[in-house]
Amino acid sequence: MYKKGGSKVIALYWFVILMIIAGGIFSMVYSFYHYPYDVRELEGEIMINKIADCLSSQGNMSSGLFAEEGFSESYKNNFLNECHINLNVEESWNKEPQYYFEVNFYKSENLENSVFNIPKGNLNLMADCNIQEEKEYKREVKCTEENFFSFHGEDLYLIKILTVIKKTEKNVK
Amino acid sequence: MLNKRAQMSEIMMWIVATIIILSILLIFVYASSLLAQKTKIIKAQDLKINLEEEVNSLDTKTLITYNLASESEKSIIDRWGVENE
């Protein structure tokens, strides 16, 4: 059907096409599996649960949170130890901590203004949290916020917990 | 002359076939990277255990507080819940 030279060209062509298809399949698999799983939102929710469990149990806030006159500043300063939370999880990130969280307490009479707050971690991440709605910054940090109610004696409090996690290198390509 | 024209049309057919194969491959490579971006964001609700209803730990805390609350406090929690739904 083909001349001798023509059949060689066709064989070479098929070989090239096969290589291209194999390369294409390889790049499809690579591009899918090379992309990291983004677990920051899940991590934030786990952190929120851990903080909430430390702050409140069976509908009542932890007694250590309060001093004789209102909230305890020493508990606030020592919050990470009190709740067994370690924000320095990897040495490579010690220069720039990758976590920030903030707990705000609101009295039931005024749910707009916080009466006490506990901020911990890298405060600079909060700025990224505020602009993450804009598309180009969308993947910079992950912010997660949850709320719950709890009692201290007769007083009802709303507690808002916000977590901000960066860790972009590990979760976003 | 006819033979040359036939050869040309055959070559053209192979070129078009190659372009089609390459473009299909490129589309699939692009689609797989898009799919990776969309499906590799893991949220807590993705990890549902085999429960009839999803249980949120903080909602449970609010529910316990709700059960301890007086009627006026219950209304505060209700109102807040409606406003933040």
Q: Overview of this structure, please?
A:
The complex is a heterodimer of chains A (173) and B (85). Chain A has 173 residues and is of the alpha+beta class. Chain A has two domains: 1-35; 37-171. Chain A is 38% helix and 24% strand. Chain A has helices at residues 4-34, 40-55, 73-77, 79-82, 125-130, 168-171, and strands at residues 56-57, 60-61, 99-107, 116-121, 142-152, 155-165. In chain A, strands 4-3-6-5 form a four-stranded antiparallel β-sheet. A two-stranded antiparallel sheet of chain A has the order 1-2. Chain A is rod-shaped. Chain A starts with a helix and ends with a helix. Chain B has 85 residues and is mainly alpha-helical. Chain B is 74% helix and 0% strand. Chain B contains three helices and no strands. Chain B is rod-shaped, with a radius of gyration of 31 Å. The N and C termini of chain B lie far apart (78 Å).
Q: If helices are DSSP runs of H or I spanning 4 or more residues, what is the number of helices of chain A?
A: 6
> Which series of helices and strands of chain A comes N to C?
HHEEHHEEHEEH
- The computed structural class of chain B is mainly alpha
Overall mean pLDDT of chain B stands at 82
Helix content of chain B: over 70%
Could you estimate the helical fraction of the residues of chain A in percent? 25-40%
Residues in β-strands, percent of chain B:
under 5%
Oligomer: heterodimer
DSSP strand content of chain A:
15-25%
Number of helices of chain B: 3
The number of E-state strands of chain A comes to 6
Query: Largest chain-chain contact?
Result: A-B, 38 and 36 residues
